[in-house]
Task: inverse folding
């Protein structure tokens, strides 16, 4: 937020990979990031850069806030359901697991090999900063407030994110109906692949793909989402956004 205003003043278009412009409300930013936002004026004009949902807004944007890695799995995983009113808008559980590189670049004791090898642990329970980002995007899709329970886990691998999402349907729905909904919803979105079996992290490694699978189990809707956090998680989507901003084919440089 310190570096970007001078660039915008020089009419340079910006794709920001930090979290500084992802949350539209400066008060919400202060609550979750424990600091005051220093650029509320540009915050109002930033576009959340998830191309599959907000690509039309990205095309003309001066400032694009690149989405976080975890939120993409949750938002794209739930968007078809909330947009069609098929699940309760409160109480969806997002259980996410990430390799060590998904935990950020700040050195921490828990990231050291002797600590994380042969170990799985939850962190930032109830307080992870990606929570309001997920809720904001899903609320925009639903047209109503959405709240979720998001819990990330650190697992002993280098890269990759797998999220398993549990939601309560608002009516009885068949699994094949949901599969067709997802395929229709993401038709023409080249980097979202809808599968009939749950994806694994190795299915997406080294690519910008985000793989989804939806199932009905004992009256609940389960969504599985996998991505490579070192591509799709930030840099790959930044390239997608760049392509949209400058009128290129969204796939250039990525596939």
Result:
């Amino acid at each position: 937020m310190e570096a970007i205003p001078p660039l915008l003043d020089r009419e340079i278009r910006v794709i920001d990979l930090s979290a500084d412009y992802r949350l539209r409300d400066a008060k919400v930013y202060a609550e979750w990031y424990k600091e005051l936002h220093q650029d509320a004026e540009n915050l109002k004009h930033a576009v959340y850069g998830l191309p599959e949902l907000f690509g039309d807004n990205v095309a003309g944007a001066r400032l694009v806030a690149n989405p976080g890695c975890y939120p993409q799995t949750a938002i794209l995983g739930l968007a078809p359901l909330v947009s069609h009113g098929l699940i309760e808008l409160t109480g969806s559980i997002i259980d996410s697991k990430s390799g060590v590189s998904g935990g950020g670049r700040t050195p921490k004791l828990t990231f050291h090999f002797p600590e994380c090898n042969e170990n799985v642990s939850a962190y930032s329970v109830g307080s992870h900063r990606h929570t309001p980002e997920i809720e904001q995007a899903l609320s925009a899709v639903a047209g109503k407030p959405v709240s979720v329970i998001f819990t990330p886990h650190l697992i002993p691998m280098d890269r990759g994110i797998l999220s398993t999402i549990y939601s309560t349907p608002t009516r009885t729905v068949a699994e094949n109906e949901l599969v067709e909904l997802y395929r229709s919803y993401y038709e023409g979105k080249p980097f979202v692949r809808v599968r009939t079996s749950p994806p694994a992290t190795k299915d997406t490694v080294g690519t910008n793909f985000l793989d989804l699978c939806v199932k009905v189990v004992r009256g609940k809707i389960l969504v599985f989402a996998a991505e490579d956090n070192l591509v799709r998680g930030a840099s790959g989507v930044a390239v997608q956004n760049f392509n949209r901003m400058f009128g290129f084919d969204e796939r250039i440089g990525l596939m």
